[in-house]
């Protein structure tokens, strides 16, 4: 895994993305050169913004491929799914985006003849790149050989995570090194006990491992081999904590096996002035753009709500924001007026009978969230961040879920990492799962992660129907 702006990115995905950007830009030049081939030499058209047009074309196609999930690779599905079911629709979406760009910036237009050639070369090149990655995924040199220090419940959970069918990274587990302080929960055949006089680094070299994952729940006492682990690290063997392993592989921070010191001394949690300034500037620009684009949809939604259930059109509800401050979030009303006539707050259910017909549609399309743009402009919310919860539920969850208040160290958001990764939640157990994604965002938030979340939000709204 690569770590870019605090976010873990698969080396396979990054390499494929980089290669396909080169293919798209190269195809643009090849298509233009072939289109204007005069029989003796290739002559590129004299456009003032030719390179800019190539970059816009590549950006439109990469965005479309990302929105359709082409970089959430599953090599087990084979080539047919990644090409016919995703690449062709991606190119169709890219064409629509380019049409809009050319309408707004006609100087970037490069002609239909070039566009046909460019799409042909791009499709062929991306297909060949995907075939290459599909074939290389079968090679064993892409596997990472690892040892788990520990043989208890935490080690078993880490091992199960490593053996899951992952598209991005393959592991070959050499075994588990048991420690005296915990019960063995892994199969006996997978244990690698240290022989008398054998060091941990000698065992690691014998097993040809490149990484040791420390998955011991109780590290107190003399049984924990801290000096041996330092020796392994000095010999070039990567030593990874179980919490970091979970964070890297699941993009979550697991609260059930988390050591408080890991949060204190680990990286992340950037609350600097520059990060706050960039996030606020991004929030304002994105909110104004979304407000301008979605205004007709918002007006039509307001009319539909009034026709079905009369006023009020909007619904204000207390939510907990940054540093525990309570504010009123603004949403389109999606439930009947007497949804909580008993006066006690209730979890919203997946098929909630209190939801109106219009409300059911706008919830699935996330249109009910659009008025929160005003909360963002007022500075009460951010465009991307943890979902704000009601004070009644926050009080309950703070008592029952460890580290729940950490999510209140930044502004809540209209969309967020937990919302695009986990989706709907209507219980304390769901709140725990979403918290683990929220903690990952709070720890690793960056402009790159915000952009990735917005792309995933677009995909959820347009192609999966939302929560």
| N→C terminal distance | 29 Å
Question: How many domains in all?
Answer: 3
Multimeric state: single chain
Computed structural class: alpha/beta
In total, the number of strands is 10
Q: Helix count, per DSSP?
A: 17
How are helices and strands ordered from N to C?
Answer: EEHHHHHEHEHEHEHHHEEHHEHEHHH
How would you sum up the major sheet? Answer: 4 strands, parallel
Low-confidence stretches: none
Assess the beta-strand content as a share of residues.
Answer: 5-15%
Helix content: 40-55%
- Shape from CA axes? flat
Round the Cα radius of gyration to an integer and report it: 26 Å
Strand numbers in spatial order across the main sheet? 4-3-5-6
Overall pLDDT confidence? 84
Family: Belongs to the bacterial sugar transferase family.
GO cellular component, one term: membrane
Main location: membrane
Domain Bacterial sugar transferase: 279-462
Task: Summarize the helices and strands and which ones pair or pack.
Elements lengths: L1 E3 L2 E3 L1 H25 L14 H18 L10 H6 L3 H18 L7 H25 L6 E7 L3 H11 L6 E8 L22 H7 L4 E4 L11 H9 L3 E4 H9 L9 H6 L7 H37 L4 E7 L5 E7 L24 H8 L7 H7 L3 E3 L6 H10 L12 E3 L1 H5 L6 H17 L2 H18 L3
Parallel strand pairs: 3-4, 3-5, 5-6, 9-10
Antiparallel strand pairs: 1-2, 7-8
Helix pairs in contact: 1-2, 1-5, 2-4, 6-9, 11-12, 11-13
